């Protein structure tokens, strides 16, 4: 059996194969036949007994007719018969995508007897090289590591049936995903750290950088998910994208905290004091502008109180300013170390097979 494989993200794979079956039929032995006789006329092929085999895990099958019906029966003088036909089949493969795109897969192709029980028909692989791949075959997503053929037996209520299984051990090519998924998101995360080196007063710049990187990593994640089948469990790429999104979001959140501490609302001392009662009067409900118009002269006691509270405020502002700068300085070290620690755990875990 020689074949060409094509795998796609929908957990199916297509095979364009030549199925070769060989058996002996003593009824076709004839002393006058001295050379092999080839039959490729479909009407003549139908007249020869053939094993009734099918592919249990095939979802779709097509017989090849280009440019003629791709079928051949070769009858040898001793009664040996070679039956060859070309088929295009779509097989289902129960892929586990929990480690996608760092995963390995095992896909099977099954051949079984349809109507004859194991007492009537027994299927066996060819003793040497039963499954041959087309020379120069290359697949964009997978590399075939090994092919393991084996015999099997299926048991049903109506009897036991002979079957054959070919297991394809596949290793996904991760180069595409490194370039298209991992490296871009890694760069987006690193770019989000530039905010820690920008001045705290650069509100437009830091805000734009944080929001842009967050939108970029979200768009990258959506693009990746659009080309994958929907599954009910978390994949390795989901863990990566979720963590990168969390790092970018935390960088934006860090700027929000730092900016709040840097620009902590200053109490309007002058406004509060001017609304207080002067000369022992009752408290006024007038606004700051009304008091300023009505009493353009501020008492000395009020000015002293303003200066005292201004000094206390300046000390508080200085403390908040230093703390805000310290948070930026710590973030410059903490974020890269945390991201490297995540990578140190992520790659060994998902690359182990």
Q: What fraction, in percent, of the residue positions are helical? A: 25-40%
Span of the ends, CA to CA: 29 Å
Q: Which structural class do you get from the secondary structure elements?
A: alpha+beta
Query: How much is the average pLDDT?
Result: 83
Number of domains: 2
Strand content: 25-35%
User: Which shape, going by the Cα principal axes?
Assistant: rod-shaped
CATH fold description of the largest domain: Methane Monooxygenase Hydroxylase, Chain G, domain 1
CATH homologous superfamily label of the largest domain:
Neurotransmitter-gated ion-channel transmembrane domain
Run of helices and strands: EEEHEEEEEEEEHHHHHH
Number-wise, the strands total 11
Secondary-structure arrangement, i.e. CATH architecture of the largest domain: Up-down Bundle
Oligomer: single chain
* Low-pLDDT windows of residues: 265-270, 278-288
Mind summarizing the main beta sheet? 7 strands, mixed
Q: How many separate helices? A: 7
